[in-house]
UniProtKB/TrEMBL annotation:
Residues 7-238 form the ABC transporter domain. PANTHER family: ALIPHATIC SULFONATES IMPORT ATP-BINDING PROTEIN SSUB (PTHR42788:SF13), TAURINE IMPORT ATP-BINDING PROTEIN-RELATED (PTHR42788). Keywords: ATP-binding, Nucleotide-binding, Transport. Signal peptide: none annotated. Belongs to the ABC transporter superfamily. This is ABC transporter ATP-binding protein. It holds the Pfam family ABC_tran. It comes from Xanthobacter aminoxidans. InterPro entries: AAA+_ATPase (IPR003593), ABC_transporter-like_ATP-bd (IPR003439), ABC_transporter-like_CS (IPR017871), ABC_transporter_ATP-bind (IPR050166), P-loop_NTPase (IPR027417).
Length: 258
């Protein structure tokens, strides 16, 4: 493989606290993600998934080891990165459109220049007629879509997502999975997606990295060779079932219960 690595992590360890109260959240994490690749981390609650994401986003520091994006050590939030957290954290006093334009304001980019992109993305997410609405006037699924549109508005190369659909009902979640796949295929972002749903992982991923319970380590790196675009019926195929079984057995073997 000669594809350039967009993300490279080596020997990464994260401890919270010191002395007898110290807690090792991540232990010797190493992986690299190629440009345009869709990589999914799956692991039990508390295994350090969010910790890893916060380090990649530049909101937290590793205790040891290195984490690089495009060959540069991560020292803080980056312009080329979009982030989606588990809850969409929208500002209630901003309209949908103004929430979407938040990164433009924060990065001090030109609002006028990005307005068309914002509207185009809102339209793609089926939210065109809601741009003047406030977050509390939208359903949970719609709010989460606003969060995703916001993460894309400055056209970042990397999209980092921490259980973005965890709070949604099953139907909405499936629709969002399909939507995300479509966006990714259209715009070819490098994606890191965190979940504790095995089926969501297999449905979305080029690669599934399976983590152990705390301290989180990577036990397996599984390439998902299912052609795209994948629709929801792919979940009924024997091959899909094989991948799901492989991931589940690994999680069971490490003592993680999904
Ligand atoms: N800021 C923090 N201070 C102390 N402990 C933390 C902090 N953030 C997370 N932890 C602990 O680190 C472990 C991993 O947490 P987290 O990364 O949120 O796991 P996950 O996202 O996989 O559920 C947990 O035991 C959690 O309690
Ligand atoms: Mg988490």
């Amino acid at each position: 493989m000669t594809a350039k690595a967009a993300i490279r992590v080596h020997g990464l360890t994260k401890c919270y606290g010191v002395g007898s109260g110290a807690l090792v959240a991540l232990s010797d994490i190493g992986f690299s993600v190629g440009e345009g690749e869709f990589t999914v981390f799956v692991g039990p609650s508390g295994c350090g998934k969010s910790t890893l994401l916060k380090i990649l986003v530049g909101l937290d520091r590793a205790t040891a080891g290195t984490a690089e994006i495009q060959g540069e050590a991560i020292t803080g939030p980056r312009r080329d990165t979009g982030v989606v957290f588990q809850s969409p954290v929208l500002f209630p006093w901003r309209t949908v459109l103004d929430n979407v334009l938040l990164p433009i304001d924060v990065l001090r980019l030109d609002r006028k220049q990005h307005l068309a992109t914002a509207r185009e993305l809102l339209s793609m997410a089926g939210l065109s007629s809601f741009e003047r609405h406030y977050p509390w006037q939208l359903s949970g699924g719609m709010q989460q879509r606003v969060g995703i549109v916001r993460a894309l508005v400055h056209d970042p190369k990397l999209l980092l997502m921490d259980e973005p659909f965890g709070a949604l009902d099953a139907l909405t979640r499936e629709n969002m999975n399909m939507e995300l796949q479509r966006i990714w295929m259209e715009r070819r972002k490098t994606v890191i997606f965190i979940t504790h749903s095995i089926t969501e992982a297999v449905l979305l991923a080029d690669r599934v990295l399976v983590m152990t319970p705390r301290p989180g380590r990577i036990v397996r790196d599984i390439r998902i060779d299912i052609p795209r675009p994948r629709d929801l019926s792919v979940a009924n195929t024997p091959l899909f079932g094989e991948y799901v079984r492989e991931v589940r057995e690994l999680l069971n073997a490490t003592g993680a219960i999904d």
